[in-house]
Design brief:
globular
Length: about 200
Amino acid sequence: MFRSYSETSTKETIDLIIRLAYIAELKEWDNRTHLERIRRYTYAIVSEMGMTQQDIDVITNASMLHDIGKSQLPDTLLGKTGNFNKEEWAVVEAHTSYGATILGGSTSPILQTAEIIALTHHERWNGTGYPRKLKREEIPMTGRIVAVADVFDALITPRPYKQPVDPANGLKVIQEASGTLFDPLIVQIFSDKFNDIMRGISG
């Protein structure tokens, strides 16, 4: 006999979230390792912020759904290797709102957190991000955390349209954007944990 939904283990729930995140982004590129790195970066940051273990686990697992809205973008844009024009950028930027719509209305703490992250992880500390041009503490903490994690991983990961930078230079880019693009507190925590993070990734 099948178990009821209420009997489903936390491990199985996380497994479903990982698979959902992977499937949602698969048409852009094979991102299973990307999602795991985002999870690791996020965990390293939130574990230093005085949160309960339950909150740490919720945010960490929710972070993997940050780009689920890309599942609604045309394949032609996801596979493009050149620069986007203005109209194309508007479509790409909409993946944040798409993600929030997909995840909205859930009673699950993980999916509720993922909805916020999906909507706000491209907002920037100085108000130059999207979709709402929020700035500083207007941006939810979870969005600020995943913003650092996502940009750092984009910098160090090879893509069809770019070569990666080495992790040390990736960290330097993040640090140079502290107080402009990124929350200085998040950048400081990420910097302090950087060597541990890299050991975990390489291991």
